[in-house]
Design brief:
This protein is mainly beta. The chain contains one helix and five strands; from the N terminus they run βββαββ. Helices cover 7% and strands 55% of the residues. The protein has a five-stranded mixed beta barrel with strand order 1-2-3-5-4.
Length: 143
């Protein structure tokens, strides 16, 4: 069972663009990346510290050719991103045979976390491209 989630983290591995089987004979373009999601707390000395037991990697898959390509082209290793979608936990076995949890997010939307962005350059909207989702319910729903 999945839950709708928002995950914030730093990109660990460069995004990879892939073609996977789609419906019928069609291929579907996806982008995969891995985030390190972490929680931080006040350290009592005017700074913050990472909470190790709440820090974990999340495998993110972005469906839809347009969004997958944009993530692949613009998101780089070290970037802080926010991914929204359906979150799953699945188990895998490490080299010693121990079950380990892995977080997976099938992303509907991926955005840069503006905390570390120095500048942004906008392009003109392409003919027929829908307006961006404003988040206030007035724009199109991304899924």
């Amino acid at each position: 069972m999945a839950m709708r989630s928002e995950v914030t983290g730093n990109v660990l591995i460069a995004p990879v663009l892939k073609k996977i089987p789609g419906r019928g004979d069609e291929e579907q373009t996806i982008c995969e990346l891995r985030l390190m999601s972490a929680e931080y707390r006040d350290n009592g000395r005017g700074g913050v510290e990472q909470v190790e037991e709440r820090t974990f990697p999340v495998q993110v898959t972005i469906f839809g050719e347009s969004q997958a390509r944009r993530v692949y082209e613009h998101i780089k290793v070290g970037a802080s991103v926010i991914a929204v979608g359906r979150f799953y936990v699945r188990a895998w076995k490490d080299d010693q045979g121990n079950a380990q949890p892995e977080g997976r997010l099938y992303a509907e939307r991926v955005a840069l976390n503006l905390q570390r962005v120095e500048s942004v350059k906008f392009r003109d909207r392409a003919a027929g491209e829908p307006p961006a989702d404003t988040g206030d319910g007035s724009g199109p729903t991304p899924f």
